[in-house]
Amino acid sequence: MLTILLIRSGITEFDSQGRIQGTLDVPLCEEGRRQAESTATDLAARPTPIDALYAGPCLSAQQTAEVVGEKLDLKPKTLKKLHNLDQGLWQGLLFAEVKSKQPRVYRQWQDRPDTVCPPEGETLHQAGDRLKVALAKLTKKHKSGTIALVLSQPLASVLRSIMLRDGQPPCLCHSATTGK
Fold first, then answer.
1. pTM of the full predicted structure?
2. What is the pLDDT of residues 75-120, one digit of tens each?
3. Are 148 and 68 in contact, with CB atoms under 8 Å apart?
4. What is the C-alpha to C-alpha distance for residues 103 and 107, in angstroms, rounded to an integer?
5. How far is CA 59 from CA 24, 133, 178, in A?
6. Confidence at residue 95, expressed as pLDDT on a 0 to 100 scale
7. Going by C-beta distance under 8 Å and a sequence separation of 6 or more, which residues neighbour residue 34?
8. Rounded-to-integer distance, Cα 159 and Cα 138, Å
9. C-alpha to C-alpha distance for 165 and 145, rounded to whole angstroms
């Protein structure tokens, strides 16, 4: 049986500042690097090994995967379909800016995120379809063992939701940001 371990990447300066990152390439901040190292240490202590390590193409996911891969003696593989949720023209803005400029849309985005598409971005449904394709490829390639996917937020939560809803392989989560 295949087990998928979702690992949320460490935080970036954008996260610390309350900015919307989306698909922008933002590196880990110092705290994010410490989070990645802590995650790597936790994963190295797991009783069952991780057989393969995949990461989205964004810089924070790549850097987190490199730290984890080094500790686990795994070479991370990049999957383009694991890029973060495209937040379009909102990328780089503070959450507070979107809230003040578009209060009704912001409120809807908080209450029912599946009904909002940022200007020139992608919907959660579109991201979910992309993730289902990636997941199908991975489950076809890996029939058993444990594979780890390093993803940025909110993509990690989107994939976890899909896997739980659709009865995909068992899904374990580890967050570089919380250590759980």
1. 0.91
2. 999 999 999 999 999 999 999 999 999 999 999 999 999 999 999 9
3. yes
4. 6
5. 8, 22, 19
6. 97
7. 10
8. 13
9. 22
